[in-house]
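Sample pair:
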Amino acid sequence: MIWIFAILALVTVTGSVAAMSLRNLVHCALWLVLALGGLAALFLQLDAQFVGLAQILVYVGAVAILIVFAILLTRGSEPPQQPVVTGSWVMGAGVAVLTFGSLAAAMLASLDTPMLASPKPNVAAGVAVKHIGEKLMTDYVLPLEVVALLLTAALIGAVIIAMHEEPK
C-alpha cells in the first residue's frame, strides 16, 4: 500500500511541478490533467469514491479539457520565443519550501494530540456513490439541473468569446 501511495504521490507532484514550470500552455494543461488524475487516484485509494470520481468527472473530464480547448482556440499562430522553463523558479522554490515548512511544523505539532495517540478502528461511514447518486436524483434534482444549465451557459459563452469574426 505504501508503494502505491508513493507512486501516486510521485505522479501528482511531477505533474504539478511540470504544470507550474513549463512555458507552453498546452503542455502545462496536459500536465495539470496528470496532476488532477493523480489526486483522484489518491482519493480513490483512501476509499473516498465520490470525491475521487467527482475529481475525475469534473476536473479531469470537464475543466481540464475546457482549458485545453480554450488554449487551442485562443492562442496565436506565431511560435513562442520564450525558454521552455520559466526564469522565476527561485521565487517558486522559496514559496514551496515555506509551505512545506509550515505544513511540516503543523503536522509535528499535531503529533502530541490524544486523538492520534489512540487510534480508533476503521469504521466505514456507510456513504457510497450509490447513496449520493440516489439523493442527487431524488431530493436535489432541481439544484443539479440548475448547475447543469449554468455550466452549459458558461460553455456557450466561452465558445462565443473564442470565436473570431472574419473581416469583410
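The helical segments are 2-21, 25-45, 49-74, 89-109, 114-117, 129-138, 141-162.
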